[in-house]
Amino acid sequence: MNNQEIIKKLYKNTETDVNVLQDPEIAHLVVDHNTVLGSQLVPGLHVDVKELEDGIDAHITVDEGTTIGKRVHLCFGMLAETGVQRILMNITIEKNAKISVLAHCVFPNAVDLKHIMDAEITVKEGAEYTYFERHIHGPKGGIEVYPKAVVHLGEKSRFKTEFELVRGRVGLIDIDYETTCERESILEMTARINGTGDDVIKVKETGHLIGEGARGALITKIALRDVTKAEIYNKLTASAAYARGHVDCKEIVQDQAVAVAIPIVEVNHPKAHITHEAAIGSVDSKQLQTLMSRGLTEDEAVELIIEGLLE
Amino acid sequence: MEILHVKNLGLTLGGKKILKNITVDFEKGKVHAIVGPNGAGKSTIAFTLMGLEGYTDVQGDILFEGESIVNLSVDERACKGITLAWQEPARYEGLTVEKFIKAAAKEKSVDTVREALSKVGLDPDEYVKRAVDKTLSGGERKKIEVASILVMEPKLVLLDEPDSGIDIESIEKIFDIITFLKENGTTVILITHSLSVLKQAEHAFLMCNGEIVDMGTSKEICRYFEEKCIPCDHKNIPELQVRR
After folding, report:
1. How far apart are CA B61 and CA B15, in angstroms?
2. What ipTM was assigned to the predicted interfaces of this complex?
3. Could you give the CA distance from residue B140 to residue B88 in angstroms, rounded to a whole number?
4. What burial class does residue B145 get, using C-beta atoms within 10 Å of its C-beta: 0-12 exposed, 13-18 middle, 19+ buried?
């Protein structure tokens, strides 16, 4: 198979038309295991990739004041059934730059696979970085995913990240993100995961609001079925005046699944304020019965409610 | 012709008799009301007719179009053409108005959804992609719930306190929908303690303390309810005198 054929096979599993990669205004980087299959840059965006034995080491920089007009596409995947993929990322969004990234992590055939992402992200003063990571796994669940990121937000910067794993089996996922937020920066971190079978889900999201007026939201939405296990540790600390934050965890638990959610809020300044909300349990009875009174079976109603939660 | 025959219906919850030996008929294509003070058992009878969880262990029988439905589940009753709108509709995080309404629709198309939203007075462009969640007001959720009932094209609709928690303009829209349902041959049962809602009905049942204590035209029941029930201070103990 040549590179283009592998790219097509990877994107076939996504909802994205592979032809977007032909657009000269859309920057992209596509990697299968440790091989760069394709890449394209646009003015103001620099990507330096080194192929490692088991993955890649990528340095991505957006020049000061640059707005990358069209969403950048990243694709990290493996068509193989077994192996390890390690993605090392160092991302710097320079002052007042803006970029939005859609990353697909595609492992459709996983039987015994490990995907490790280790990222250092710096979003400098006034910059904006939006990162949407969508995982597409196969039906077997033979995969372990370890996304880890250390993020620093400069003054008045903004970082919005969404992690989605709702297609295919989760396998084991262990997310560990930690963000430090300077003055008037904004952090939004959302994870949506759909667990089935004997999947194991661990989410640890931490935000430190250290600058005056910094704001942060940590949101986790998880559906658990069968004998899935989930542990969610979301921690938000505020140590500056007018820092505001919210931790929100919603989990729908079905069958013999087990969910543990531990929201930690820590306030070290009298003018800071953080709230948290956690709702864990079975599907709400009124929601369920409303849909059933429209003719949906119980299973169909549960599916629709979960689909909404993970939307 | 009756569409629904309730025969000696009884329900006990937590050791207390909530519905007591109720026997009533609901005529097909008419707008009926079940009226009574708070705690009379009005919503309970609606939930029992719909077969909601916790309201199925009944005595007596419920015949819909001549067939007993007491052993049918909620969705099985819905498939026969019965549905219910709650006093306070459920909220669904993330679920779009389009998906919520489409799930109920016989004709599962966006056009059907848009048409239903227009009928209840909501701009489809503004609402189809919104979530049925806490960002909607009570009135908006109520209208969206009614829209989901319209697309279902049911034979029998139970509307529990349809004027609860909504503004006057929205109430008028709900009344228009009641008229629309009737014109399309749907039987409507209004559960209410509101005189303005009661007046939308052609026929009414007066309920007190788990019993149907009277029935008649809505005008007759309205007069009795206004004069006797509203000022009544002996809650749920009906006077046994006849209303006329």
Report:
1. 20
2. 0.94
3. 11
4. buried
> For testing the chain B interface, which of A250, A294, A297, A303 should be mutated: the one with the most B CBs within 10 Å?
A294
Beta-bridge partner residues of B231 = none
Whole-angstrom CA distances from A139 to A111, A136, A169 are 9, 10, 5
* Residues in chain B within 8 Å Cβ distance of A290: 86, 89-90, 145
Distance CA A193, CA A205 (A): 14
Tell me how far the alpha carbon of residue B196 is from its chain's centroid: 15
| Helix (H/G/I), strand (E/B), else coil: B163 | coil
Test the A interface: residue of B47, B52, B56, B75 with most A CBs within 10 Å: B75
244 residues of chain B, pLDDT tens digit each:
899 999 999 999 988 999 999 999 999 999 999 998 888 899 999 999 999 999 999 999 999 999 999 999 999 999 999 999 999 999 998 999 999 999 999 989 999 999 999 999 999 999 999 999 999 998 899 999 999 999 999 999 999 999 988 888 889 999 999 999 999 999 999 999 899 999 999 999 999 889 998 899 999 898 888 877 777 766 656 555 544 4
Residue A120 is which amino acid? E
Tokens for B138, please give them: 């009570």
| Angstrom distance (rounded) from CA B18 to CA B211 | 9
Residue A304 CA to residue B1 CA, distance in Å, equals 37
Could you list the beta-strand ranges (E) of A94-212: 98-107, 112-123, 128-137, 143-153, 158-167, 172-181, 186-195, 200-209
- Put simply, the answer to whether A304 touches B95 (Cβ < 8 Å) is yes
Put simply, the answer to whether A311 touches B152 (Cβ < 8 Å) is no
C-alpha–C-alpha distance, residues A151 and A173, integer Å: 20
Q: Does A287 touch chain B (CB under 8 A)?
A: yes
Q: How far is B66 from chain A (nearest CA, A)?
A: 20
Query: Could you tell me which of B27, B57, B20 has the C-alpha nearest to residue B208?
Result: B20
| Beta carbons within 8 Å of A251's beta carbon, 6+ residues apart | A220, A221, A222, A223, A224, A230, A232, A259, A261, A279, A280, A281
The span from the CA of B131 to the CA of B117, in Å, is 14
**CB of B56 closer than 8 Å to CB of A271:** no
